[in-house]
Specification:
This protein is an alpha+beta fold. 35% of the residues lie in helices and 25% in strands. It has an eight-stranded mixed beta sheet with strand order 11-16-17-24-21-20-18-19, sandwiched between helices. Strands 1-7-8-3-2 form a five-stranded antiparallel beta sheet. The protein binds one RNA strand of 75 nucleotides through helix 4, strand 5, strand 7, strand 8 and helix 6.
Amino acid sequence: MLRYNLHNTLYRTSMLDHSSLEFEALDSDSGQIEILRQKIRHSAAHVMADAVMQLFPDAKIGIGPPTKDGFYYDFEVTHPFTPDDLEKIEKRMTEIISKNHSFEKSTISRNDAENKFEQQPYKIELIENLDSDVPISTYSHGTFEDLCQGPHVETTADICAFKLLTVAGAYWRGNEKNPMLQRIYGTAFESSEALEEHLHNLEEAEKRDHRILGRSLDLFSTHDEIGPGLTVWNPKGAMLRSIVEQYWRDLHIQHNYQPVYSPHIGRSNLWETSGHLGFYNENMYAPMEIDEQQYYLKPMNCPFHIMVYKSSLRSYRELPLKLSELGTVYRYERSGVLHGLMRVRGFTQDDAHIFCMPDQIEDEIGKVLDLTFELLDAFGFNNYSIALSTRPEKYVGEAMMWDHATDSLRKAIESRGLTYTIDEGGGAFYGPKIDLNIQDALNRDWQCTTVQFDFNLPERFDLVFQNDNGERAQPYMIHRAILGSIERFIGILIEHYSGAFPVWLAPVQAMIIPISDRHLEYADSIQSALSSHGIRIEVDSRRDRMNAKIRDAQMQKIPYMVVVGDSEAESQSVSVRLRDGTNLGAIPIPEFQELVSLAVTNKTI
RNA sequence: GCCCCUGUGGCGCAAUGGUAGCGCAGCCGAUUUGUAAUCGGCAGGUUUGGGGUUCGAAUCCCCACUGGGGCUCCA
């Protein structure tokens, strides 16, 4: 693995004075510091390219921009970089930085640029693609000059703290038809403290990785025998999942959705009618033949829900008809993109389809948003960003319907006082949509919720309802998923809570720890008493010391550790320790039961 | 799919061409303990699979598969 061990590598930081660096950013707002970091990182990328060219003079250089958390630069080299190479490059960069070269900008003609970069085919390609009215500029430091529009820091010494992180393949301009270059990722900051903090955060994120916690908390597992991208849920994870799903079902019924169920395969003609065989073929698995008929594993639930709709002639009185299902779908994902629970080949959508009349859409979209916030809030997500995607160039349906639908989406958002961005032309070909991103505890964005109009399927399946004039009309159809994929959502939950789930979600809410064997009977009696109240409580009856049992329960991130010994048995109480280490001392059993029940009801952490 | 890396008992790791080891977990026994690991023993691996090089392969080579980091934040 071409990856540095963050624990064992020294952070390389420049020891030079920073006199030339304007530190106004430090006492200004965070926007200022971001601008400074962009400059530092972009400059670090140049220095890295310089170092690589010194060490590997045959390298062809691609692009080297700053990114959200660092920078990268792409190179074409005959031999891919090794971790040793990264160290050498880092060392050379430190040398370059210590020379305190200043970054000099020059504006040059297209001709000069082409001459200057004649050894660099990727730069030539970039120059050729520049608009003729754009002035061409380069930045140089020392002997290295790069095609660049800047901006940069003043001198290399301003790159106060940097570190190279990983090397990876990356297609030139991201297109897999182009050659694959070697990309080196690094990061840089305005101070070594900030760099160390960033590296520390990376380590923390690694500890929260749902794939690691999934194993150590015994939540789910994957197996060669089953296949990549296919997960099995172990009992603890299945418990967590079923709690999530049960809450989802209850809430949907409260919100007037009707649960439905549908099979996992359907005949080819269903998918021909829906159009999936045409436009979604790449993500569908090969058909299986049953009695000389072709059947496909479902990549989506909508055709089945449409069949439920069509199972009788619908009256306008039935609308809006809201059909919901935790529907498991199978989609082909390229092997390289699979990732834990986040990207899999078989997953369960928290799907629903709303069939309604045109004058109901605004209200219905609003209700979807309200339900979304209620649901996500329960799981501890209350930072959102919303994007509205409008009509693309290629679309089906009538422009008027698009406008009406887009307008209803906008009004639903605005009437709730929410801010949003507009992705002009970013809608699917079949309808406009709202996407919602949640932010987790590490401020990472996850797109879960999507609400999409569909002007395609009602037409293809000839959906109708009888209106109040006895005429047949076509309903509007809305697809929506709030959690997105249950698998992925639980992956996000694991990372958000770092495995320490709130009491209502914890697979095991309390572990009874008898101090010695003679307390087992009392422990069992508490267990059955509290289980009968719906508390998920177990007894650690192993012949281990109390300390070992506490440690295990801590590691399993169980919310309550219930220690029982002579004095507790005597007073019909329990000694409660929380997983944050707090010792609540002895409390009567009914009081403990109340404590847990309250935490469950209030969904407190 | 593509590039690079990786694969050793359930899990985490060691052994770099010469007899596969350690820790955790598991099982057995002793201990009966007051808020983050009690002690001792036992068992567990044809080193992901297949092929090759070699007197000899976990180790080198080839193929396949798993897992990991990435693959338009654009000069």
